[in-house]
Amino acid sequence: MNTILITGAGGKTGQAIINALSKRGAQVRAFVYKADYQTRVEDAGAHEVVVGSLTDEVALQQAMQDVQALYHICPNMNPNEVEIGREVIQAAQQAQVDHFVYHSVLHPHIEAMPHHWHKLRVEEMLFESGLSYTILQPAAYMQNVLAGWQTITEQGRYAVPYPIRTRLGMVNLHDVATVAATVLTETGHDGAIYELAGPDILSQIEVAAILSEQLDRPVTAEQIPLEVWTAQAKQSSLGDYQVNTLRQMFQHYAKHDFYGNANVLGWLLNRPPISFLEFVRNL
């Protein structure tokens, strides 16, 4: 059976994709940074686990052995994403991987958001690599709302660090994972760049209204001042680069909104994408 390698497999995206692939009977090898992540990826359905750094040439070579397809996820907002992308692409070239699928981001062309701009540079390297490739560009996940779930359910506050009239087009992670499994296991996706955007373009007021209706309790959207959010973020496990990058992303959202078109996602799923209302109903 052909092996599919998932890099950055220990996060929520990697686990969701492993799970989607395992349901199709695929042989999945998970590449994780910490041995602590081994159990979670095995529980998701990984058959093999390689522990190592994405900048470790030896570990990458080990992970790439006898791999037919690769799904590359760089750790979120990593300042070294371009260098990591170069290392992974070179390892895939050396291993003669048949199909390289890159987890990019919706609208990577926006230089004002560094983590988007870095992904565009990796896309460019992939174009020049000679590898058969597919690029997925997902929007922000609906699941991100769950980070504030306790505040939402206990206090009725849906707090965001940008204006509550900001419109976002969130996508369901499980839809993204389904598409990833499709392009990794089916033919016909060579050279494709797929925008994966959700079906709703909602203000944060509308998001709060849906939460309120489905939770059967009042939920109010409120804007956290960016400086307050920054102070809180610096007390968490986020580093300076991550905090500054997120600040720039929130500032872009505030000025321009952030959404795409769901047509491509629906075509790939062969069904309507999951709406935010459906997502909340199924929690």
Itemize the secondary structure elements and their pairings.
Elements: E1 3-6, H1 12-23, E2 27-32, H2 38-44, E3 48-51, H3 57-64, E4 67-72, H4 81-95, E5 99-103, H5 114-127, E6 133-138, H6 149-155, E7 157-160, E8 167-168, H7 173-185, E9 192-196, E10 202-203, H8 204-215, E11 220-223, H9 226-234, H10 240-256, H11 263-269, H12 276-281
Parallel strand pairs: 1-2, 1-4, 2-3, 4-5, 5-6, 6-9, 7-11
Antiparallel strand pairs: 8-10
Helix pairs in contact: 1-7, 3-4, 4-5, 9-10
What can you see in these coordinates?
This protein is of the alpha/beta class and 283 residues long. It folds into 2 domains: 3-140 and 171-196, NAD(P)-binding Rossmann-like Domain (Rossmann fold, 3-Layer(aba) Sandwich), CATH 3.40.50; 144-167 and 199-259 and 274-281, Alpha-Beta Complex (UDP-galactose 4-epimerase, domain 1), CATH 3.90.25. The chain has 12 helices and 11 strands. It has helices at 12-23, 38-44, 57-64, 81-95, 114-127, 149-155, 173-185, 204-215, 226-234, 240-256, 263-269, 276-281; strands at 3-6, 27-32, 48-51, 67-72, 99-103, 133-138, 157-160, 167-168, 192-196, 202-203, 220-223. The strands form 3 sheets. It has a 7-stranded parallel sheet with strand order 3-2-1-4-5-6-9, sandwiched between helices. A two-stranded parallel ribbon has the order 7-11. Strands 8-10 form a two-stranded antiparallel ribbon. α5 (114-127) links the parallel β5 (99-103) and β6. α3 crosses α4 (81-95) and α4 runs parallel beside α5. 42% of the residues are buried.
